[in-house]
């Protein structure tokens, strides 16, 4: 069997497609997490303005966790992009 240049290009396109799919999925998840974070901040601010300050600390902790998750996803996207460009 000959594994000539045509086979190599097909394999390369397959890897590129999987990388793009991973990047698209991670970007979609980042967008969803940012929307959830915006909703969380809005709900916490509304609660604080209503006099329920006890919601501020849990909201800040969850917001920090979401921010950390988005940062990890962003780094994952950068790593996959670098690997695809090699």
Low-pLDDT windows of residues: none
Mean pLDDT: 86
- Structural classification: mainly alpha
N- and C-termini, Cα separation: 27 Å
Compute the gyration radius: what is it? 21 Å
Binned strand content: under 5%
What is the number of helices? Answer: 2
Largest sheet: none
Task: Choose one word for the global shape.
Answer: rod-shaped
Number of DSSP E strands = 0
The helix/strand series, from N terminus to C terminus, equals: HH
**Amount of helix:** over 70%
3D structure, described in words:
- The protein is mainly alpha-helical.
- It is built from two helices and no strands.
Spell out the blueprint of helices and strands.
Layout lengths: L4 H45 L6 H30 L1
Keywords for this entry:
single chain, 87% helix, mainly alpha, 86 residues
Question: Outline of this structure?
Answer:
The protein is mostly helical and 86 residues long. Helices cover 87% and strands 0% of the residues.
């Amino acid at each position: 069997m000959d594994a000539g240049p045509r086979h190599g290009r097909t394999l390369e396109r397959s890897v590129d497609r999987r990388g793009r799919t991973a990047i698209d999925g991670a970007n979609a998840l980042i967008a969803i997490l940012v929307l959830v974070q915006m909703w969380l901040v809005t709900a916490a601010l509304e609660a604080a303005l209503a006099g329920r300050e006890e919601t501020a600390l849990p909201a800040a902790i969850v917001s920090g966790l979401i921010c950390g998750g988005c940062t990890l996803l962003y780094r994952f996207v950068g790593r996959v992009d670098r690997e695809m460009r090699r």
